[in-house]
Amino acid sequence: DGGITQSPKYLFRKEGQNVTLSCEQNLNHDAMYWYRQDPGQGLRLIYYSQIVNDFQKGDIAEGYSVSREKKESFPLTVTSAQKNPTAFYLCASTLSAMGPAEAFFGQGTRLTVV
Amino acid sequence: AQKITQTQPGMFVQEKEAVTLDCTYDTSDQSYGLFWYKQPSSGEMIFLIYQGSYDEQNATEGRYSLNFQKARKSANLVISASQLGDSAMYFCAMRGGSGTSYGKLTFGQGTILTVHP
After folding, report:
1. What one-character-per-residue DSSP string does A8-73 give?
2. How far apart are CA A21 and CA A87, in angstroms?
3. Could you say which of A58, A59, A107 has the minimum Cβ distance to residue B44?
4. A44·B110 Cβ contact <8 A
5. What does the pLDDT profile of chain A (114 residues) look like in tens digits?
6. Radius of gyration of the CA atoms of chain A, in A
7. Which among A85, A93, B6, B55 would be 20 to 30 A from A18, CA to CA?
8. pLDDT classification of B8: cutoffs 50, 70, 90
């Protein structure tokens, strides 16, 4: 079955540590996205990528980094510079970066800083 | 810069009645796409409907329709004959079609819909 897989589902991190969230898709989609969602809030765009080896900052990129070395993979690193990283993180992909291509989402990773 | 605004934090509707969820947007792009998603309490994101900026007719998908008013920059979602299973968070989203916003998919703050029996 095609889809987007995020791992792990739950992640605990100590303050001052970097942590990497995984996002893999086997849909052959060109574009991939990372969002942060706080309780009862909307989705805020962290980074997005329309093609391999290229990505753009979203609205809240500070304290985060990404890479897009393979079409199917778009890992997100939450660095120690992110002041309040506890949140629900969603990865999404679309067939293309334009037109009616809807976004497919992973199940999310819930990150907690302890 | 592109921006999506949903001004209704919460909405209540009686089962079997229709409800409209508001969405306004701001963009300087001529070409863009508008989407609505549903997020149940389980957290998954479910695509509902799409409207392209050049589409002349309002999009419809089953009980969902999008009331697109381009001059007013609004893209309201209308759910007809509400069902208990429609209770969820609803998000409006926009993807830019040109310039620095090309491919950028931005979401609004969401509206929590509660359907009463």
Report:
1. -SEEEE-TT--EEEEEEE-S--SEEEEEEE-TT--EEEEEEEEETTEEEE-SS-TTEEE--SBTTB
2. 12
3. A107
4. no
5. 679 999 999 999 998 899 999 999 999 999 999 999 998 889 999 999 999 999 999 999 999 999 999 999 999 999 988 889 999 999 999 998 777 888 999 999 999 998
6. 13
7. A93
8. very high
First CA to last CA across chain A, in angstroms?
35
CB-hemisphere CA count at 13 Å for B103?
A: 21
* Residues in A touching B105 (Cβ below 8 Å): 33, 45, 48, 92, 94, 103
Integer angstrom CA distances of residue B27 from A71, B3, B102: 29, 7, 11
Cα(B60)–Cα(B42) distance, integer angstroms: 25
Residues of chain B with C-beta less than 8 angstroms from the C-beta of A102: 35, 47, 50
